[in-house]
Structures are given as structure tokens and as C-alpha cells.
Amino acid sequence: MPALTLREILALDSVRSAAPTLLAGEDALDRPVRWVHSSEVYEGANFLDGGELLLTNGFGLADADAADRRRYVRELAARGAAALAVEVGRSLPRMPDEVTDEARRLGLPLVALGRVVPFVRITEAANRAIVARGLSGRAVRPWGADHTAALLADLADGQALNQPEVEARAALAGFRPGPGARLVGVSVHGPQHTAAAAVDRAARAVGGTGVLRAGFPGDVLALLALPETGARDPVRALQEAFRTTADPSLTVAVGHTVPASAGWLRWSDTLRTARTTLELALTVPQASPCHAEGPLVTSSRALALERELTRGGVDANRDRLSRLVQHTLGPLLSWEAAHPSDLVRTLETHLRHGCSPTRTASLLHIGRQSLYQRLERIESLLGLEIDDPDLLGELLAATCAHRVVRGMGTAGAGHLRTVA
Prior knowledge:
alpha/beta
């Protein structure tokens, strides 16, 4: 289905009621319109991403000189604006000749609005029509008319969006988080029907007020709206909900919380973080022994170090991480190559749990005396004291990098094909 065109926008009742007159760009009436904005700011071009119809009351043009007016039109054309519509008769008695001349020279459609109509009425009607068309001037996605999937894909892709567009498309999909809601991105790997059902059950278990979810090749991606619950940790609560309600075949990654009012970039960030976390969970061995039964449920905070080490892509960091591992843990790796042992894993578990012998021994299912022997061996081989505060960061980063490198070598390609 083609995108909504400028010709169709001008034919809307709310636009026609403003008595539009086309002054330039007659040959560009069939260009797609991605969104409709209104702005009284003279530097309105700075806020455009391309494909927008910009509405202005002309206040900024009234006091500008001829050169500035021409530059204004050039900047709009350079940013890929679909058209410019200017209200004439109040702030601007008539369309300046240089604006019309520059628009004609550049082929930018220029519309004079002869009657006063609240811009909010025009933008709401036009943007609803754009959303209902199911696109926004972009190439057709594989999921076609599935508005929810298209919106989640655009958010996970980090597409150039704007908040009114996101909110309108979310509302079309039935997702209307309240101003006090918190949003959490979730990415689930497994059979899609099973994964989708798990998302819905977990959302109900934590009192979710809305769910925006869709299936993609490799995962079910979702944005959950949670009520404001004071001091309760929504990420941990959501993880527990998945652990108790999800099928054991699933792998679940929970992103971080963002205020619903924080804007679409934050919405996008939690979705992208959830997907990155899921990919790492599927390819990198776990840092600590996990439960044999039940789904694998993790979070962006649990894999924060792994995400930082692989920022920019796992493969792009392969050599750097390998050097870090060899430089920091070389003697341990040489020992493990010649002697059956588990020293690197013991070291990371110990560091991740505050260097607590009791906790480390419990997680590794060994006695405290056996743990002390391992720790002494590690310190002897590395020639350092594990609990030296100056070394904790380097040692933890190196042991984590070791798992990531191991995952690079053993994980098969194609575990997860994400949009992000």
C-alpha cells in the first residue's frame, strides 16, 4: 500500500477548511508525507528528519529580510521536507515573493493557508490518516499491515521518529501508557506462541497496564507498561514473574525501566538493550551456575559488563578481548590447559559475589577448604592478591571477556535475527 501523498493530505477536510492555495511545487504533489508538524520557530528545519509537511503561522517570516527568507526555504528543502504550508492573513499579510520564488526554484511545494484553522486540528487529522495507512513514508516492511510489529521494529531499529508519531502509532495498536507509567523492553527467544503467552502472563503478574508485543524471526519483542509502585524494583519483579510463569524452553531478557513520558528515544533504548542482552544470553556462557529447571531469565543489568565489552558488535571486539584475556589471565589459562581445573570460573564467581567465600563455595558446590586451595593457586599463578581493590575491575573484566570469547567460538550463527 503506498504512503499518503501530499495531494491526499491537501484533500483532507481539516486542510481544505483552511483554504489552501498551492503556490509552488505543482509537480511534487504525489510525493509521500511521513508526518505533519507545526512550528512557530524560525529555525524549524533543524527539527525535521525528512518527508514532513511543516505548518507555520509565518511569524518568523514576517520580520525576516529577503535573504533570510530564502535561506529558510533552502534549509527546509535541504532537510528533505515534503512541503511548507504558511498561514497568511494574521502574522504574515501575504506570502513574500522571495519565499515563493525560492520554493519554485527548488521544487518545494509551498501552500498558502487563507483561513485560520487550529494547527492541532490539521496535524491530528493528517497524522491519524498517515498512521492508518500503516507506513510513514518508509519502505514496506515484511510484516506489512501489522502496525504493532512495524512500530516495535522502527523503535528497535532506532529509526528517525518523533514523539507524536510514536504515540499515535502506539495508540493505533491499543498501547496508551499513562503519564506515570514505567516502560520495560523485553525480548524472548523460543516458540513464538509460547513466548507471546509468557509475555502476557508476566505482564499480568506484575500488574502491567499495557503490552505492545510482536513476533520477529528469532524473538518476541515487547514493551510493557507498568504502574508506578514506589520502591518496588520492576525489573526484578518482572524477572521473577517470568521465572514462575514462563515455559522452561524460553530465554528471556528484560531491559531497564524508563518513564513513559521520557520520549521515544528512551522507549527505543530499553527495547534495543533487551535485544542485545538476549543475543548475549544466547551466545555467552553464564557467569554463575544457573537453575537446571525453568526458563533462563536475565536482564540488562545482569549482563551490563558483557554489553560494555561487546559494544559495537561481538565480532568487532574479538581481537581486543582476546588480548585482554591473555594479558590478565595468561598464567591461569596455561595452567588450565595442562591441568583439569576450573580456576577462571572460580575467580569470576568469587569476584562477582563480593569475594565472599561462603557464597562462592555454595554457588560452585564445593567446600570452603577446596575454594581456599583454588584461590591460593590463582594468586600464586598470577602473582597478586585477589582482594586488592586496584585489581578488581581488571580481573572481573578479563574473566568476563574470557566467557565472551568462549561464546564466540562455540555459538552457532543465526541464533537470533533481530531488527536492531
